[in-house]
Amino acid sequence: MRERVGTIQADVFTDRPFTGNPLAIFPDAVGLSTDEMQSIAKEMNVSETTFVLPATDLKAQFRLRIFTPDRRAPA
After folding, report:
1. Which residues contact 65 (CB under 8 A, 6 or more apart)?
2. Model pTM score
3. Which residue of 22, 39, 50, 62 shows the fewest CB atoms closer than 10 Å?
4. Residues 14, 15, 19, 24: is their CA dihedral positive or negative?
């Protein structure tokens, strides 16, 4: 795993800061394995942790992998 991985924490489903549902976002998850993503999601301990990856479909601009602290969310 890389030594440093940038993250953003956002509040979703709200119009006010520090309310709603906290979401961890990793805007550059290239190089992270599924196991590493799951470990990070467990460490973040928020409802969902989202990892942004390059698109594999020519019609898409990016690809998301979403994890809860316990498991990967279905695609």
Report:
1. 29, 34, 37, 50, 51, 53, 72
2. 0.88
3. 62
4. positive
Which residue is catalytic, options 3, 36, 43, 48?
48
Distance CA 30, CA 68 (A): 19
Structure tokens at 73: 């969310």
69 strand-pairing partners: none
Give the pLDDT confidence of 11-35 residue by residue, as tens digits. 999 999 889 999 999 999 999 999 9
Residue 75 CB-half CA count within 13 A: 3
Output the CATH code of domain 8-67.
Answer: 3.10.310.10
Write down the domain spans for the chain: 8-67
